[in-house]
């Protein structure tokens, strides 16, 4: 064989082997799993966006269809993906898979209720006191009663024993206002707080308060004593507090009051009706704001009304009145008075009265 022909034959064999080797390497690289990128290497900016070129799988569709191995792999992948769906599970098993069962709740240990009624009565009363400790001492017909008081009183519906014990403690340790003074619709209501209570609740009350001053130029029509108010059922009341917020007889009200002695007469008549309905009241406590004078027409008329009904007169802490003397009668000693008293041998502990 000529030398030239031999070289051509050898070249063809090398080219064929090289082509087969390259084809094998490319085929293995197409089906080999991707090599993970170390986490310490920065990801190229271009890899953060999807490629605009067709992927290798899209460009070699014909080869995958023709190749037996590639077709088998694609079929296995399709079955695996189908198994993740409800339809795939039905096709694979021939029957629908059961829905997942809910997680069972942990069995709670049944605890016995605390035997509250087996405690001594003294301890139960102490617990009731702590329970009602955050309620205001004086209760009035107020829009906030539902939020502050009504929900707490739901505790009385537990049983009959708790209703009697806690109910008596609540109504007997709070002072209830006879006529509402809160501004708004409750101020002019014809159904005060006492009229909204039951006869049993009124019988537990031990202290009432009547405020005078609101509506001094035009008293509300609901401020009347009648059987619906239920004062005659408050048989446990022994203390009545009369708090005077203002005295319209003072000169500062000149030109504003309706007529002389209008509100003073209304207040005396109201106190008379209240004491007539409750002859069991033992003492009347008078208190007022600092602007009210004890010698004013308002206070003198109220004190005389309480005395005419044979009631004991007490004084509240706000104004600081006493039985000994009136605060208006106390004269502050001057330097000349001090010198005169020392010369006459009179001690300065003596109160100088005008």
Summary keywords:
354 residues; alpha/beta; 12 helices; 8% strand; elongated; disordered C terminus; AN11006-like
Please explain how this structure is put together:
The structure is a single chain. The protein has a six-stranded parallel sheet with strand order 1-2-3-4-5-6, covered by helices on one side. It has twelve helices and six strands. Helix 9 links the parallel strand 2 and strand 3 (207-212). By secondary structure, the chain is α/β, with parallel strands linked by helices. Mean pLDDT is 76; it is low at 45-70 and 328-354. The longest helix is centred in the N-terminal third of the chain and has 29 residues, at 3-31. Among the domains are: 120-323, no CATH class; 326-354, no CATH class.
Protein topology:
Layout: H1 3-31, H2 56-59, H3 61-66, H4 68-82, H5 86-93, H6 121-131, E1 138-139, H7 145-153, H8 160-172, E2 175-177, H9 199-204, E3 207-212, E4 239-244, H10 262-277, E5 283-288, H11 297-308, E6 312-315, H12 335-343
Parallel strand pairs: 1-2, 2-3, 3-4, 4-5, 5-6
Helix pairs in contact: 6-8, 10-11
Report the principal-axis shape. elongated
What number is the mean pLDDT? 76
For the terminal residues, how far apart are their CA atoms? 159 Å
How do the SSEs run, as a string of H and E?
HHHHHHEHHEHEEHEHEH
Q: Any low-confidence stretches, pLDDT <50, length ≥5?
A: 45-70, 328-354
Major β-sheet strand ordering: 1-2-3-4-5-6
User: Which radius of gyration do the C-alpha atoms yield?
Assistant: 49 Å
Helix content: 25-40%
Number of strands: 6
- Secondary-structure class: alpha/beta
Q: What about the largest sheet?
A: 6 strands, parallel
Discrete helix count? 12
Range of strand content: 5-15%
Biased composition (Polar residues): 38-54
InterPro entries: AN11006-like (IPR038883)
Protein name: F-box domain-containing protein
Region (Disordered): 28-63
């Amino acid at each position: 064989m000529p030398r030239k022909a031999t070289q051509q034959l050898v070249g063809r064999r090398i080219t064929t082997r090289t082509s087969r080797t390259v084809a094998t390497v490319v085929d293995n690289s197409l089906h080999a799993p991707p090599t993970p990128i170390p986490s310490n290497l920065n990801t190229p900016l271009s890899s953060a966006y999807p490629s605009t070129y067709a992927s290798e799988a899209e460009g070699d569709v014909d080869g995958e269809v023709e190749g037996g191995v590639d077709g088998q792999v694609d079929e296995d992948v399709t079955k695996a993906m189908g198994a993740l769906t409800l339809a795939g599970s039905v096709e694979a098993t021939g029957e629908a898979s059961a829905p997942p069962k809910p997680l069972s709740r942990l069995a709670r240990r049944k605890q016995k209720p605390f035997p509250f009624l087996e405690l001594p009565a003294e301890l139960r009363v102490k617990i009731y006191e702590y329970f009602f400790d955050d309620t205001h001492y004086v209760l009035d017909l107020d829009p906030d009663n539902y939020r502050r008081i009504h929900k707490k009183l739901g505790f009385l519906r537990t049983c009959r024993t708790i209703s009697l014990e806690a109910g008596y403690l609540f109504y007997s340790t709070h002072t209830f206002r006879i006529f509402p003074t809160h501004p708004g619709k409750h101020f002019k209501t014809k159904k005060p707080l006492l009229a909204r209570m039951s006869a049993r609740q009124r019988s537990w009350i031990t202290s009432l308060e009547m405020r005078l001053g609101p509506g001094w130029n035009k008293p509300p029509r609901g401020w009347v004593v009648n059987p619906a108010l239920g004062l005659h059922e408050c048989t446990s009341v022994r203390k009545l507090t009369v708090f005077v917020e203002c005295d319209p007889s003072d000169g500062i009200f000149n030109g504003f009051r309706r007529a002389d002695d209008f509100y003073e007469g209304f207040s005396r008549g109201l106190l008379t009706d209240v004491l007539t309905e409750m002859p069991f009241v033992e003492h009347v406590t008078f208190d007022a704001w600092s602007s009210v004078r004890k010698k004013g027409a308002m206070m003198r008329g109220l004190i005389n009304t309480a005395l005419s009904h044979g009631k004991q007169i007490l004084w509240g802490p706000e104004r600081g009145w006493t039985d000994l003397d009136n605060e208006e009668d106390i004269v502050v000693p001057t330097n000349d008075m001090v010198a005169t008293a020392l010369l006459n041998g009179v001690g300065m502990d003596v109160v100088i009265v005008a």
